[in-house]
Design brief:
Blueprint: H1 3-11, H2 19-24, H3 33-43, H4 48-55, H5 59-73, H6 78-87
Helix pairs in contact: 3-5, 3-6, 4-5, 5-6
């Protein structure tokens, strides 16, 4: 499922979904809590190294979280992930 699909569903213009699929696309369930923190730091223009230092995790772990975020949001880059997150309400504008 892409971010565009999620936007269509949330706006009501997408297809009717089964209860199980609809539950999976609820805004709060798209990303894990750790992925949300990483995305928030990405949105604040932190580098992977800065995120790793802030969260006291390995840079490789940050990369893995970022790649998972991109996949879940259907994003191709950091900017695309942040833009999509803003659009579906996962990250607040600062």
């Amino acid at each position: 499922m892409t971010a565009a699909d999620v936007l269509d569903i949330l706006s009501g213009s997408g297809p009717v979904l089964s209860a199980a699929v609809a539950r999976d696309v609820k805004v709060g369930s798209i990303l894990t809590p750790q992925e949300r923190v990483v995305l928030a730091l990405i949105a604040e223009a932190f580098s992977n190294v800065e995120i790793a230092a802030e969260l006291r995790i390995a840079v490789g772990t940050v990369r893995r979280h970022a790649n998972t975020i991109y996949r879940k949001l259907g994003a191709k880059s950091r900017v695309d992930a942040v833009r999509t997150a803003y659009a579906i309400g996962l990250t607040a504008h600062s």
